[in-house]
Design brief:
α2 packs across α7. With 368 residues, the chain is α+β, with helices and mostly antiparallel strands. The chain has a 6-stranded mixed beta sheet. The longest helix has 15 residues. The structure holds 2-oxoglutaric acid. The site of 2-oxoglutaric acid has 10 residues, from β10, β17 and β18.
């Protein structure tokens, strides 16, 4: 079965115009255009074949946010007394695998030593949120990321929503609907989003700093070793003095148990030992075609087709922050989706997801 899969990966990358040899790593890039596409060209060349696209900063030059948001204090002034949801973890890895807090063998999953960890969410005013994000430090055990994925730009951050376009006109026309959600993301270099996919067509726009995407097409599902993990959540206890409270985060397993299918692969392990462990455990990822790398700079827009797996890291701008807005458009559940479910059901090296519409590696559930 594995040779047939490798043939599928090579053929689909060929048809997408993306090289498939791992030797071509430097050449594997998302097509980039200087001016926004017409709706027809976008539909024909990107939505229909499921091919990503990077659009230069010309696309957002008219947005007030392009000049206002990268400044040091605009957002904190404009949102001074607005309470927002801030996601806290000790290491910047929310919605990611972590060591199980009680690593005894699980009766139904002997040997399972990892769990799916969600952040502790606090409601704080924007100046506090920005101070905590800027000061994030895994060495101090606290990394803050404003990444509420529930249409938060039009909700919690509504006072600044008018600084960006309400939708992306050429995408709206091509996709035939308005965005279902518009989200704001504010982080710094310590926050990383692990490999997952979404049931949305995504227009992702960076406004300060840079976002670094690693991408794999849906045909490469088996390379991500999606497996079932028990869910856990960070809980906070206050320590320190009343004047200078300090938060300590502890991982607790969810009760009743909830199982989350999630990718087992960490493409950027922290140490050579971890890298060796990852490479030997997940050869289809580490010994396959290079992931497609795409850095989205301030002002640029990435079109990320639905169901593409993505891993996202970030570098802050001069204001110490990475700021982005994304537009999620509902995907079309068409024949490609049916083929993809069939592919997923094939068991390769103990990896499959028999559930036809499982939300594996899919953050969509959080939106409601
Ligand atoms: O920016 C991030 O950290 C993750 C973005 C993402 O996963 C998405 O837009 O679907």
């Amino acid at each position: 079965m594995e040779p047939a899969l490798r043939e599928l990966w090579a053929e689909s990358r060929d048809l997408l115009g993306l090289p498939s040899s791992s030797l071509d790593a430097a050449a594997v890039a998302v097509p980039r255009i200087d001016l926004p596409p017409t709706p027809l060209a976008f539909l024909r060349d990107h939505v229909s074949p499921g091919r990503p696209l990077l659009v230069s900063a010309a696309a957002t030059r008219h947005w007030p946010a392009a000049s206002l948001w990268p400044t040091a204090s605009y957002l904190t002034d404009a949102l001074r007394s607005t309470a927002v949801s801030l996601h806290l973890t000790p290491d910047g890895r929310a919605d990611a695998l972590s060591s199980h807090p009680h690593p005894h063998p699980h009766p139904r999953r002997p040997g399972s030593s990892r769990c799916f960890a969600s952040a502790h969410v606090r409601h704080v005013d924007v100046p506090t949120a920005v101070r905590l994000i800027r000061g994030s430090d895994p060495a101090a055990g606290l990394v803050a990321y404003a990444q509420q994925q529930d249409d938060c730009l039009r909700g919690e951050y509504t006072a600044v929503a008018g600084d960006v376009d309400a939708h992306v006109p050429w995408a709206t026309e091509a996709l035939g609907c308005l965005p279902e959600a518009v989200n704001l993301w504010i982080g710094n270099a310590h926050s990383v989003t692990s490999f997952h996919k979404d049931h949305y067509d995504n227009i992702y726009v960076v406004l300060s700093g840079e976002k670094h995407f690693l991408l794999l097409p849906p045909t490469e599902h088996h390379r991500l070793y999606v497996r079932d993990y028990p869910a856990a959540r960070y809980v906070a206890t206050e320590q320190g003095s009343e004047e200078e409270p300090q938060l300590r985060l502890k991982l607790e397993m969810e009760e009743p148990e909830r199982i989350v299918p999630w990718s087992s692969v960490d493409p950027c392990p922290a140490s050579p030992e971890e890298m060796a462990m990852q490479a030997s455990s997940f050869p289809l990822y580490f010994d396959g075609p290079a992931p497609i790398r795409c850095t989205v700079r301030a002002g640029e827009m990435l079109y990320l087709p639905s169901m593409w797996f993505h891993h996202v890291s970030q570098s802050p701008g001069p204001n110490g922050l990475t700021i982005a807005v994304n537009y999620w458009y509902d995907m079309q559940f068409d024949i490609k989706y049916a083929y993809f479910n069939f592919l997923r059901s094939l068991e390769i090296n103990g990896c499959s997801s028999g559930k036809p519409d499982a939300s594996e590696g899919d953050l969509e559930e959080k939106k409601d």
